[in-house]
Amino acid sequence: MKRFGFEISEEENLIAHAARDFAARRLAAGAAERDRTGRFPVEEVAELGKLGLLAMKVPAEHGGAGATNVGYALAMQAIAETCASTAVILASSNLAAKILADHASAEQRVRWLEPYARGDVGPASFALTEPLGGSDAAAIRTRARLDGDAWILDGEKCWITSGAHAAFHVVFARTDGDGKDGMSCFVVPRGAKGLVVSKEEDKMGQRSSGTASLAFEQCRVPAENLVGRPGGGYSIALSALGAGRVGIAALAIGIGEAALAAAIAYAKERCAFGHAISEFQNTQFVLADSRAELDAAWLLTLRAARMLDENARAVAETSMAKLFATEACGRVVDRAVQIHGGYGYSREFLVERLYRDARVTRIYEGTNEIQRIVIAREILR
After folding, report:
1. Which residues partner with 79 through β-bridges?
2. Per-residue confidence band for 2, with pLDDT thresholds at 50, 70 and 90
3. Are residues 321 and 306 in contact, defined by beta-carbon separation less than 8 angstroms?
4. SS3 206
5. Each residue's pLDDT tens digit, 216-228
6. Are 226 and 173 in contact (CB under 8 A)?
């Protein structure tokens, strides 16, 4: 089949269908309540693990679904259309899983990745961001030093999705000097001595995604928990970012699609001056602009995903997808709130949650200012 002009394989369509079916059956009914209380979807994420959706791009020989980046994007959009909080848990978990699939040793894959991919242990976290680092990955200050048969980690990570619930954390720390060459990657299991998890952040949006800080206070992990070579962490982190941006672009499209559907339904029902507001030209223009922008976001996102599947460099393309999709999402959701009028500001209506969920997509996985810098550097090469 084709979608927006792109050939979609049977396998890609199946993973998207599985995600959409799960979202309708298990996520939709409780999404508003989870948002209200900030409850992490423990049971729901466990079921996603059993379906293979926490390790979508992990090859089948390591227990994963072996999905393409296109299949991953379609599944992410389907989940986010129902619950953006669950979608960002998937994004973080899949990011950590792909790093282990690509860079872990055979023993590490057996020990960490395969039980995870089977859905036996719960979500994982990707722990790179620090309080003073933000989008500057090379500026991390968390340090690790080798002490006999163990690494000792000291430092802090912030804004870590699933931080309090992850079975293990893929952590980046400085092992030698400053800059890009002194960073290494580690697996730190839940409950490691010296790992202190903060209470979850009380956030504006995506409230049930379990965002927390991780403090490493003389945190001791076995030497064999080093992923890749010492000093190879920066390249490991960068290797995952392109696909991560595609995932967030798809997440933003999911939010935007939900907002547009809600706006269309409300515009057909709401009457003013004796007519449904869908009959007014201004409303039609707003809906038309929203549909056009979401289609453009789809095209950029599927292009970037397909290029990654073909092992193309796709640096600018993944940044363009993330930049455009998240900003288009913001505009679409804002229009949906406006169409709802005062009701759009009420928590009784879906678009109020979508408005809050959409805002952070322009910040995480590299701010949109960073995406513009990346794109500009590529076109000026």
Report:
1. none
2. confident
3. no
4. coil
5. 999 999 999 999 9
6. no
Helices (H), the chain: 10-22, 31-37, 42-50, 69-82, 84-103, 106-108, 114-117, 233-269, 281-309, 315-340, 350-359, 368-379
With tokens 């796709």, the residue in question is 314
Task: Supply the range of the domain harboring residue 131.
Answer: 125-230
Domain boundary among 230, 254, 284: 230
69-115 tens-digit pLDDT: 999 999 999 999 999 999 999 999 999 999 999 999 999 999 999 99
| pLDDT given for residue 5 in this prediction | 87
Q: Which residues are catalytic?
A: 365
- Cα(31)–Cα(79) distance, rounded to whole angstroms? 11
For residues 258 and 360, membership in a common domain is answered with yes
HSE, CB side, 13 Å, CA atoms: give it for residue 333.
27
CATH code assigned at 158: 2.40.110.10
Exposure letters 290-311 (e unless 16+ CB within 10 A, then b) = beebbeebbebbbbbbbbbbee
The two structure tokens encoding residue 139: 């500026």
Output the CA torsion sign for 304, 119, 115, 364: positive
Q: From 180, 209, 230, give the residue that closes a domain.
A: 230
